[in-house]
């Protein structure tokens, strides 16, 4: 959990999506309106994490780890190896 201490959502980066780029889209309104409206609502409702250790994300982390609540079985590991879902490690 130490790695999460510096996590910060940067909502200003979403503003980049709001400005049409010339040549990328013909109709700057209708095609992207749904997405732009969702981004605007998210920005209006955004509340930054005020905790220094990002404990405000604890619920999301717990939910993400729920499938592993009973531990990680050999069968799960075998499936990861079979599908090559693990993090690649460089050869040393």
Describe this structure as you would to a colleague:
This protein is an all-alpha fold. The chain has one domain (2-83). The protein contains three helices and no strands. It is extended and about 50 Å long. The two termini are 27 Å apart.
Please describe the structure with a list of short key phrases separated by commas or semicolons.
disordered N terminus; mainly alpha; Glycosyl transferase CAP10 domain-containing protein; about 90 residues; extended; 3 helices
In short:
InterPro entries: CAP10 (IPR006598). It is built from 3 helices and no strands.
**Percentage of residues in helical conformation:** 25-40%
**C-alpha geometry:** extended
Q: What average pLDDT do the residues reach?
A: 76
Major beta sheet, specifics? none
Gap between N and C termini, in Å?
27 Å
Secondary-structure element string: HHH
Rg value: 20 Å
Total number of strands: 0
Structural class: mainly alpha
Query: How many discrete structural domains?
Result: 1
Query: How many helical elements?
Result: 3
Pick out the low-confidence regions: 1-7
Query: Proportion of β residues?
Result: under 5%
InterPro entries: CAP10 (IPR006598)
Pfam families: Glyco_transf_90 (PF05686)
Protein name: Glycosyl transferase CAP10 domain-containing protein
Keywords: Signal
């Amino acid at each position: 959990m130490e790695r999460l201490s510096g996590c910060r959502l940067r909502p200003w980066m979403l503003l980049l999506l709001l400005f049409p780029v010339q040549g990328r889209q013909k109709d700057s309104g209708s095609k992207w309106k749904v997405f732009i409206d969702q981004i605007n609502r998210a920005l209006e409702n955004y509340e930054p994490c005020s905790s220094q250790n990002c404990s405000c994300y604890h619920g999301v982390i717990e939910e993400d780890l729920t499938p592993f609540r009973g531990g990680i079985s050999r069968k799960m590991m075998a499936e990861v190896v079979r599908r090559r879902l693990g993090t690649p490690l460089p050869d040393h």
